[in-house]
Amino acid sequence: MTMSVEELDALPAEEAADLFRSCCGASAWVSAMVAQRPFKSANALLAAADDVWINAHSKDWKEAFDYHPRIGESSAAAQQTDRAREMSVSEQALARLASSNVHDQMSLVNLAYERKFGFIYVVSAAGKDARELLDIARKRLKNDPETELRVAAEEQRMITRLRLQKLLGVAT
Fold this sequence. Notes:
Structural class: mainly alpha
Shape: elongated
Mean pLDDT: 87
Number of strands: 0
Order of helices and strands: HHHHHHHHH
Number of helices: 9
Oligomer: single chain
Helix content: 55-70%
Largest sheet: none
Strand content: under 5%
Low-confidence stretches: none
């Protein structure tokens, strides 16, 4: 289901919050996006989404990460909306086609990543297969925690942007 920016702008705050939450689980980001309406254009909405995210605190970034399932899995630490769950399944579609060996390797890398950084491996998975996601994770394991938090936050920003574009039916 897609909607226009005008339709999103006109929604009651609670409904708009639910839609924004399906794109990004950080409650401060959701609240800021609801408060900034009306956007009047897709470009204005996307610019606001980026600006709010870039200026968010690391605790907000980590909260958003909890709304994603691990790569290769289907459930997240935090309760996802049905729309968010559907988007996640779609984004990870290619990763689910991997062999059991690649899935096993991904599970091990997911655990190593979480032990090192304290949050799940967040990556914009759309269009990437499991082997590619595994390679990216292995490279990112070499990052220091501060660098990796910023990398993961940028990946979350890209995921959010992609989901907002899908919601609005805007070409990506």
